[in-house]
Structure prediction request, 284 residues.
Amino acid sequence: MSLGDDHGFGGDTSSRVDDGFRGTGQTRTRLPGTDTDVYGGARRPVRNSRSLITVVGVVVLLIAAIAFANQGGGDEERAGETPKGPESAPTAATGVKPVQGKVGGIPTGYGRNEQGAQSAAANYAVALGSDGMFNKDRRSQIVDTVYTPDVAAARRGDLDKVYSDPKFLSSIGLKPDGSAPTGMTFITRFNPVGSKVESFSPDSASISVWYSSLFGLAGDDSTNPVTEAWYTNTFALKWVNGDWKITDFTQKDGPVPVGRDQVASGAKEMADAVQQFGGFTYAR
Prediction:
């Protein structure tokens, strides 16, 4: 699953596709007519084509629907920001206390500095990618917590429309109230890997967050099994009422690492893992 803006969900909005996350810069390339890629590894077995088409179709629908709901500005220039070059960011923790508290389980109260902005972007990405977005009360709390007040007010209606649409919910295997069918566990979780400062000023910032996502239904009869995907979200943040808040964000695919030939876990093991392993408060 992925979440983005009107430019997001597949739209490549970043002009800095570089090694800012300390990557190698390599892209996986499979030569036509062969079963190997340029890394020399054997091609992994593919899943049944019908299942693959179903999963891809669901993800595309999800992307399109939520992209519509998140339509907004973001093209305006943010005065006073200092653009960052493509240099790699250190991966070690800064030692700065990341947050002052939490609102509804969402970390808040960030420092008015680059570290605080990066921490906010990572934690807000996790909140927007959580199953709470499929519950009306939790969704309202998330929207109020991560967005600036004006943006929250402007987007609430469209987000409610998307996440409560019975046809949309049915297409991803959920019941009309957004819950999972009996015997299944709905899984949607974003796992940040790193963050990068695109630009920064004391009043606004642009932060990119690279993350993997888990999305799907864990259950023996699931037609939308839990799969992994990789994305980069770029968040436009504004300092409002003593904290960083989102005014806009965009999304693009990748960078995507080469997968390993690991055996996929069963439905119960996957459901148990997500329930037993809690998430983190992210900090730079």
